[in-house]
């Protein structure tokens, strides 16, 4: 049932948007291609930072540093039941969108998408944002210097997402 | 900040690689990683085009406005002091809609507009309750379709790439709830 809902939502949204577009007599094909062109530009805009960060992540993995860091934290992580393979993603996700992409790609390639780690990483990445970027853009846009409880609350939400991701994947898939 | 993070990652991997005897693999990853970066971008191109195209139809046809209408009750709870027909509330609703539909290109300018409108109501360099709340909601993700993650899962041949969508919703909801509670609960320094 849950699985069916997950599969059905994307076709459902596409169906609704196209039906609505036809009803409103929008030239949907032209709109689609115009939007797709924007999507293309966006992807190529992030390509340089992807090259930079994927290279850095691959090098860090190859040097053994990521494993070293994860092993260092193992006793603590085992204690709270958090998979150590997800530590690099948890650290990168709030800081850089391209960096997080690089890390998830690495995780999915190493562990596979349909494994416990792969599922946790996917859920975690899908349910969080690049928190520090968002904070910088919005606070900066109006020159706010005293953000009061904003940063704390945002990080609390991130931490919740990371922990709940693991719990939910355990509950639903295992 | 990325200057130090990226620089640090590059330098640490070379130094640590040399110390731990993995320098050869580090060296080959310098070349490989660059190629891999392009591969990641390429694996995203299709979905990015498709989804941006669909979303362009959504905004042209007014579907996003309709969707925003459905969000009104939620925004009333989150921003009880804002008038329902104010410019600020309008921008907030449009921003949340764009976020939910995964239109991140559209969401950021709408979000900046919302923050500017909220700032007009409460000028100065201190964030108002509503600005805090708005930013916290934006730092937590509320995407209905996590299209980027789906594309990456597809690129590694996932047997069911969609199976994570429902879990993503639950986790997003939990994260937002935590952020909102934190926001409403620990207001201080105003």
Number of separate strands of chain B: 0
Instruction: Give the low-confidence spans of chain A.
Output: none
Order of helices and strands of chain A: HHHHHHHH
Q: Please give the count of helices of chain A.
A: 8
The largest sheet of chain B is: none
How far apart the termini of chain A lie comes to: 16 Å
The whole-angstrom Rg of chain A is 19 Å
Radius of gyration of chain B: 21 Å
Please state the structural category of chain B. Answer: mainly alpha
**Oligomer kind:** heterodimer
Helices, strands, pairings?
The complex is a heterodimer of chains A (174) and B (190).
Chain A: H1 2-23, H2 28-63, H3 65-80, H4 87-92, H5 97-111, H6 116-126, H7 131-141, H8 150-173
Chain B: H1 2-20, H2 23-61, H3 63-78, H4 87-100, H5 104-121, H6 129-139, H7 147-155, H8 165-185
Helix pairs in contact in B: 1-2, 2-7, 3-4, 4-5, 5-6, 6-8
Describe the protein's architecture and organization:
The complex is a heterodimer of chains A (174) and B (190). With 174 residues, chain A is mostly helical. Chain A has helices spanning 2-23, 28-63, 65-80, 87-92, 97-111, 116-126, 131-141, 150-173. Chain A has one domain (47-173). Chain A has eight helices and no strands. In chain A, helix 5 (97-111) runs antiparallel to helix 6 (116-126). The model of chain A has no long low-confidence stretch (mean pLDDT 91). By secondary structure, chain B is mostly helical. Chain B has helices at 2-20, 23-61, 63-78, 87-100, 104-121, 129-139, 147-155, 165-185.
């Amino acid at each position: 049932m849950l699985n069916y809902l997950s599969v059905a939502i994307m076709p459902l949204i596409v169906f609704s948007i196209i039906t609505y577009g036809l009803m409103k007599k929008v030239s949907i094909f032209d709109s689609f291609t115009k939007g797709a062109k924007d999507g293309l530009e966006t992807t190529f805009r992030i390509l340089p930072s992807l090259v930079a960060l994927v290279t850095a992540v691959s090098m860090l993995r190859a040097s053994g540093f990521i494993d070293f860091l994860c092993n260092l934290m193992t006793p603590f992580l085992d204690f709270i039941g958090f998979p150590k393979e997800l530590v690099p993603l948890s650290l990168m996700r709030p800081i850089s969108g391209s960096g997080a992409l690089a890390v998830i790609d690495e995780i999915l390639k190493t562990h596979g998408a349909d494994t416990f780690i792969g599922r946790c990483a996917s859920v975690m990445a899908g349910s969080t944002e690049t928190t520090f970027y968002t904070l910088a853009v919005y606070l900066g846009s109006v020159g706010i210097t005293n953000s009061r409880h904003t940063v704390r609350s945002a990080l609390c939400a991130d931490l919740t997402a990371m922990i709940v991701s693991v719990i939910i994947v355990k509950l639903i898939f295992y | 900040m990325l200057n130090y993070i990226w620089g640090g990652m590059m330098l640490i991997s070379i130094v640590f690689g040399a110390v731990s005897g993995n320098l050869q693999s580090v060296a080959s990853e310098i070349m490989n990683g660059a190629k891999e970066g392009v591969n990641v971008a390429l694996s995203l191109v299709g979905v990015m085009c498709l989804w941006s195209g669909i979303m362009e139809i959504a905004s042209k046809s007014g579907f996003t406005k309709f969707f925003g209408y459905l969000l009104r009750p939620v925004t009333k709870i989150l921003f009880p002091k804002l008038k329902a027909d104010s410019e600020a509330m309008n921008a907030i609703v449009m921003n949340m809609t764009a976020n939910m539909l995964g239109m991140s290109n559209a969401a950021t300018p709408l979000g900046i507009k919302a923050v500017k409108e909220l700032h007009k109501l409460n000028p100065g360099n201190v964030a108002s309750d509503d600005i805090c709340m708005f930013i916290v909601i934006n730092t937590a993700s509320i995407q209905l379709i996590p299209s980027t993650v789906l594309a990456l899962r597809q690129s590694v041949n996932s047997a069911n790439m969609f199976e994570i969508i429902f879990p993503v919703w639950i986790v997003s909801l939990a994260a937002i709830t935590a952020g909102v509670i934190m926001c409403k609960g620990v207001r201080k320094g105003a």
